[in-house]
């Protein structure tokens, strides 16, 4: 029953993202090139976590379930990093305030999708262990599991490299 609620909330956030796109179109708001690149990067990370959590659920793929929480933690870091980068663009007048409000909404919705994916995979891991203590298990993994740390470092490097490469490309254009 809990998983149904998480899937429903993911759908709600997808609707919110669609509404943000419609608002951008109706108000003729555009993102800077840097924001477009960063949005693609974080949305790729969110699609990856959606696919991992769906594989965990639909195929009872516990390896995918174990990868979800480290990626969710990386998405949390990315959200804050991209929010800060957008503030810098605002200060440099590279982006509008209207775009900033939409940007903030998009980042929040994407990050919340990743939270629900983490919940889905956490429930699958609970089922594997026959426990009902998902948040305690996730906390334990974040604090002491070497595989968690390796997965986290791999995802962090992957998406930090993505940002770095896109910045180099935009500076050379």
Q: Can you put this structure into words, describing what you see?
A:
With 173 residues, the protein is mainly α. The protein has one domain (2-26, 33-96, 108-172). 88% of the residues lie in helices and 0% in strands. It contains 6 helices and no strands. Helix 4 (97-129) crosses helix 5 (134-144). The chain is globular and about 50 Å long.
The major β-sheet equals: none
Helix share of residues?
Answer: over 70%
Total beta-strand segments: 0
Tell me the fraction of residues in β-strands, as a range: under 5%
The total domain count is 1
Radius of gyration: 17 Å
Silhouette:
globular
Uncertain spans: none
Give structural attributes.
173 residues, mainly alpha, 6 helices
Outline of the structure:
The protein has 173 residues and is mainly α.
Topology of this protein?
Layout lengths: L1 H25 L6 H26 L3 H30 L5 H33 L4 H11 L1 H27 L1
Helix pairs in contact: 1-4, 2-3, 2-4, 2-6, 3-4, 3-6, 4-5
């Amino acid at each position: 029953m809990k998983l149904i609620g998480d899937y429903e909330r993911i759908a709600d956030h997808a609707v919110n993202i669609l509404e943000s796109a419609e608002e951008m179109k109706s108000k003729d708001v555009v993102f800077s090139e840097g924001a477009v690149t960063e949005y693609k990067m974080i949305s790729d990370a969110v699609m990856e976590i959606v696919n991992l959590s769906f594989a965990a659920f639909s195929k009872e793929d516990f390896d995918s379930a174990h990868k979800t929480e480290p990626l969710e933690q990386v998405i949390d870091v990315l959200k804050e990093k991209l929010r800060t980068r957008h503030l810098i663009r605002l200060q440099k007048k590279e982006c509008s305030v209207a775009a900033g409000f939409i940007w903030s909404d998009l980042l929040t919705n994407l990050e919340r999708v990743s939270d629900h994916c983490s919940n889905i995979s956490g429930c699958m891991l609970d089922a594997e262990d026959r426990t009902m203590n998902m948040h305690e298990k996730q906390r334990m993994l974040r604090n002491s599991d070497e595989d968690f740390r390796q997965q986290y470092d791999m995802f962090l490097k992957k998406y930090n490299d993505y940002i770095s490469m896109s910045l180099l490309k935009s500076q050379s254009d």
